[in-house]
Amino acid sequence: MLKVFIAEDEEIIRLSLRKQIAKLEKESDVQFVGEASDGDMALSMMQELKPDLLLTDIRMPFMNGLDLARYAKEMLPWLHVIIISGYDDFAYSQEAIAIGVDSYITKPVTTNELTNAIKTSQKQIQQERERQKQPDQKNKILHFEYYKEHFFHHLEKSGYEPSELIERQEKLNFNLLGQHLTAIYVKLPQKHLNEQNYQYLVLRLNEIFGSDKNVLSVVYDTLIIKCLVSAATESDSMDKAYYAADILKYELQSLNESAFVIAIGYTSNRLTELRNNLLITQQFAIDSLGPFNGKIIRLADTLNVEDTGFVLPDKTLLNLNQDFHVTEAIDLILDGLETKNGFSSSYAYQAAKYLMKFLEKLDTTQGKKVLAEYQESDLVLISKTPSVYRLLLEVLLTAIKNGIKEKSYHSKNQEHPVVTAVYKEMLENYSDPNLSLQMSADNAGVSLTYLSTLFSQTKGKNFIDALTEIRLNHAKELLIDTDLLITAIAFEIGYNDPNYFSYLFKRKIGISPKAFRAEHNK
Question: Model confidence over 74-94: pLDDT tens digits?
């Protein structure tokens, strides 16, 4: 099914394009999924709707069609674009070619021109997917996948020196040097294992991320997916991680998979911390598979602490989730501190410092009391005596255990404040035709991708669906309680195009606004 999105500021042209696509829906695998009157709103809607094909005018307010095409193709690498313009200008057509659009159509657009352009894009998409399945290309992709598997395996087992990582970045086609790196780990249950799913995911992720030097992904035949994401700043790296995770979630759902978890680790610009970050993210995903099915989760969001793991000298991962047992954790730490030279006091000190940092970030009353009792000099002395060190571990871990329970209780009983604020804004400003995911993200001070993920997981529906539901509920009230014309109702609830309102109402409610009013007037 080819999902088509329209970006056009002229209502009458949007209506014409929508009608032409409606005819195509009956004849072939084409589906109209949404429209916007400016490029800025179109970009935020496309983030949620994930179309395959964009029909866009060049001249639009806030963001022109060429910029929209450029940004949208970065956000959705599989996207194909058809430019529609009233300006038959060579400079525009040259720029459109540079961006990589499929077709450039001048207004007025005839049905034959549009149909041929859409079918051409549909054919190109099919050819691209078939090309990847050719034996030579497929073998090349799979061979590179095995190389990436080896890289991740060695990284997790013993790690790389920074110089070794830098040497490998060219062959990996991935930016490592001077970057903030974020790990992603995806786990599916064993029942989903089969060769068809494995090869589909390998080829599809290569199609999406293959040319992106800031995303390195690998798919294992156990259907584990691992990613590293890089960017120049910490916030950009986390935003890119949410973008990659969102696409991974979309691809898994397209396979009708829902029992998975996508875990995003924390971000670091130190290559020496990369192995530890990856191991922690992996353990976090495995521990969270049950209660977080089909969701994107982030370590720092779960307990509101940045560091949720520590790798001991024997390569054992200390992961403090809400189900850990104090006694077992003490034994794990003490066993992990035993080296060939005996008990490692230096690692004991580092582990104690980590636990105190973790406790500090939990920010509980009990935790503050415990931390007030121990000074830096105390830790140095205590870490040299295993029996006394065990007592310290018991005090710290008990406080951490209680703190995690407290944080977990509050997180389960409170909606995320960002989502609460955004939804309140939607209820108050639904009549604003410019209200969009991007606007709400800007007002909340978070990235578009982060808000999209957080909102859909909290509310069980994406931003666009929630806004549409709010608007249509108000439309139903106005249809029943007032004599306002349907055109006036469309404007009242935030739609500049009455025809689009009628189309959307019938699509969502099942009958037209006119029929809905008549039925309730009876």
Answer: 888 889 999 988 766 666 777
